[in-house]
Structure formats: C-alpha cells, structure tokens
Amino acid sequence: MTTSATDARLTRDHLERLFTQMKARRIVVVGDAMLDIYLAGEAERISPEAPVPVVSVHTRRHALGGAANVAANVAAIGAECLLVAVIGDDDRGDSFRAELAQHRLADRHIVVAAARPTTSKTRVTARGQQVVRIDEEIEDPILPRTENQLLGQLDAVMADADAILIEDYNKGTLTPAVIERSMTLARKRGIPVVVDPKFKHFFAYRGATLFKPNRRELEQAMGATLDLAHPDALPTSLDQLGVDNLLLTLGAEGMVLVTKDKQIGRIPTMAREVFDVSGAGDTVTAWVGTALAAGASVREAAQVANYAAGVEVGKSGVATVSPAEVLAMHEAHYDQLGKLRRGGLL
C-alpha cells in the first residue's frame, strides 16, 4: 500500500512544541568526520604548464564535513551534541577543532590518530564554478589502538544519550567493532539509531531505527536497478537490511519513506531553488535523528527533515539549518498549497 507522507499537516504549534523537545535532547554522532576547505578566486588565464586554468585565490574558508557536519546541524537545532570521531595530528586537525568551537561543539570525544591525516576535501572555485576538488585522506580502517580509544569514548557518551546518528563515508572510522558497539549500546538504552550508510558495511546495521541511503547506494548494495514503481521493491529491501524503517533519498525527486509496517510514502522535495546540494544528506540525518529522539513519529521526523533539506540546498556550500528556517519553509509550503487549492489546481 502506498500513501503520501505529507498528507497530514504538521501545524505550526505542533512543530514549535517538537522543536522545544528537540532542544532538550542529547544526541551522539559517530563516524567519518572531515574538514571542508573552500578556495574561491578568479581564473582569467590558462597555465603555460598544462591546459588548466590558473586560479588566483581571493578567499579561503573552512567548514565541518561528514559526521562533523551532522553534529553541526544537531547543534544548530539547539540540542546537545557529542561527536565521536577521529582526526590527525596536523594543521587541518587544528582547523577542525577551531570549527567545532565556532559551532559550540566540544572536542573532548575526538580521538587523535597521529599516523592518519585529518580527512579533508578542498574545493577550488572560480566565478562561482567549481574547478577542482582535492581529497586528502586515508581510507584504511583505523588502527587497533585508535579503535580502542574510540570505543572508550562511545562507552562514555552513550551512558545518557537520547539517540545515536551513525555517519559512514567509508573513511575507516566505522570498523565492525565500532558499529557493533554503537548498535549494542543503543539497544541497551532503547534509543533511536539513524544510519547514513556506505557500501562497505551496508548490511551491518540490522535493528537500526532508520536507514538512510540514496538510490545509487541502495542499488549498488542490492545488485540491481531499483524499480520504485514496483510495489515490492522497497519492502523487500527493508527486509533484507533488517532495519525498522527505510528513508531513501532521491535528490531533486525528494524522498521515499518505507515504514516497518510496509507503508510507502512519497515525500516531494521542498526546495524552491537549488544552489548547492553539498551536505543536504547530513542535514537530513541530523534533523530526522533529533526529531526521533524528541518523540516524533517516523513520518513526522522525515517530513521535518525534508523541510530542513529544502532550506539547506538553497545555501552555498555545506551549511546548517535553524528551527526558524524550517518553520518558515513549512509556512511557505502550506501557503503555496492554499493558493493552488483556491485556484482549482489541487
């Protein structure tokens, strides 16, 4: 059976009450953290050394990426966020800590691995167009010593957590032991587990409350093209994954929610203008997980996260989204629906 996940209106009063409850929650984020570096300038000539543009850099800025961007979004909601991640003992690690401080995030649960660089992605843009992206990282699993430190931090932060958000970018932080400890501790506390997966450990999250892949990731894991029109395609995936709920992100096409009772809901995108899709998935993870921690239903949490994603993609680069912005998006959406109904278009 297929239903629309946006059939029932979330009133402004209900959202405001939910946001108040979300701000009172303690959220753990664990996974692959990274530093995003943006170099912006002008490109007015071609290099004499190779057929590539020469970019004269005018501005440089840093931002939190991966699991750290999820944490930044949780902090922007107003909830307490405890980030458990690994960085290197390098200049980029220092910049990473500085960015955490800017977002009112503590670094006391960050593990430093001297043998690894801080994962970073440097984007070079000229006149608003990305020229090149440079990734500096090691994707091998973290070493046993680092893993043991990370497990110790997990034990500490999960003692009074209200939800755990697991962010996997295949950068080596989420070893089988880290995943198993995260799931076990969450199960003991009876708290929601939200997973943003990648291929290596796709089937390691049985029992997760909500599993949030994109279409390409799910197709790669299932080994077949996903026919969204087929009524059994997504419920079958839910069973194979062994998770409670599946939230499939589809970019400009919005999202599809499959609940544990095999109800399928289409959630159309709320974006009015797409400026940059970087970090939109991290925003969804943060909002859906914090809403679940505050007692929202899975459908409510997905709808709220969809509003937040619609705000985020209208911003430049990786960005956070505030409750006030989500409320404004919610009101604009229903104002538009009202106009369409009055005009006889709905």
Written account of the structure:
This protein has helices at 12-23, 67-77, 91-102, 144-157, 176-189, 215-222, 233-241, 280-293, 298-312, 323-342, and strands spanning 2-4, 26-31, 33-46, 53-66, 80-87, 110-112, 120-126, 129-136, 163-167, 193-196, 210-211, 245-249, 255-258, 264-267. The protein has a single domain (2-342), classed as Ribokinase (UDP-N-acetylmuramoyl-L-alanine:D-glutamate ligase, 3-Layer(aba) Sandwich). The strands form 2 sheets. Strands 1-14-13-12-11-10-9-2-5-6 form a 10-stranded mixed β-sheet, with helices on both faces. A 4-stranded mixed β-sheet has the order 4-3-7-8. It contains 10 helices and 14 strands. By secondary structure, it is an alpha/beta fold. It is globular.
